[in-house]
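Structural prep section.
Before we set up the soaks we want a predicted structure of the protein with zinc ion in place, mainly to decide which crystallisation condition to try first. Input record follows.
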Amino acid sequence: MDGQDRSDEDLTRQLADGNEAASAELYHRYFARLYDFALRVTRDRDTAALVLQVAFLRAYQAVRAGEPAPFRLHLFAAAHYDAMERVRRQRGAVLEGDEAFVTLDPSRIAHPALAAELPDLARMAWQIYRDVKPDDYELIDLSVRQQFEPAEIAAMLRTRPESVETRLARLRAAFEEAFSSLVLLRRGRRACLDLDFLIGDADWSASVRRSIQRHLQSCQTCQATRRRFPSASELLAALAPAPAPAGWQETILERLQNAARTGVMATASSPGSSRMPIPPGSGICFSGKLPWHLLVLVSSVGRSRCNSCVAKKSSNRFTLGSVRWSCSCLLRPPSSDASSNTASAA
Ligand SMILES: [Zn+2]
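Run finished without errors. Recording the tokens verbatim:
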């Protein structure tokens, strides 16, 4: 495709001029990464599809509104706000099993001596990352997997770069410590009898993790064992993107293109899947003018008010001036009432 040669900046300029091919190219360029990000944060493929759809819509809108930030920053910022909102309502339910998350991409990691052990190590690394709070995981993902600089992450989260750096340093240290303990639990007992005795019959737990960590600080044998293996963040970075079900990429693109033309986001079940990436009725209307951060505000205040996909100022409690918009059904959770909206099922 000729779009492969064009930079994000070129494509973004063309998108701002209303070039549909440029928006499709950016979509294909970022689909796998963004879906993977949304899935790892929300741990539910339907939710991830909704996050992805909202993020692309908002990024397109931001570019068309002339906002200067790079496209991928718009995209991941929008995904961040939408994913966190959905995760808060999800109340910790983790729906997706681990298999989708632990495949290593051999081109991203080179440890010939450990080739046979890498799949297991990847599982161990994911075990450490999957059990933390979504916002902590998200921060690590933005840094380790998406390779954003702290200043870029700070812009997305609307905080200071220093506070991002501090949080990242703390989280990285905690993940590496936990991973070291898990590696020694599973791989270090034969080499160190003291460690073997220390663990006994215990299974993996917070107290076992702390005991192994204390032991590691003074045991050179275990320190040598640990050095044989890659770091947790190295393994996290090497995990292949979790794939979306067949057909979803094309379906969501069609919806985004239809939305751009008609102002209505159609919904339908995904081809080749028994699950619905976009629940029936979660229609989206939007003008091409509303900055995405205002859209976030509108959506979070006006959620579930969208009987006609038109703002009700009395319930939203602020004025939008002359901006033509509507979108409060955008953030409706998949299980909520889907009867009242203007979305047309495809
Ligand atoms: Zn030891």
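Observations: Residues 267-346 have pLDDT under 50 and may be disordered.
Flagged for discussion at group meeting.
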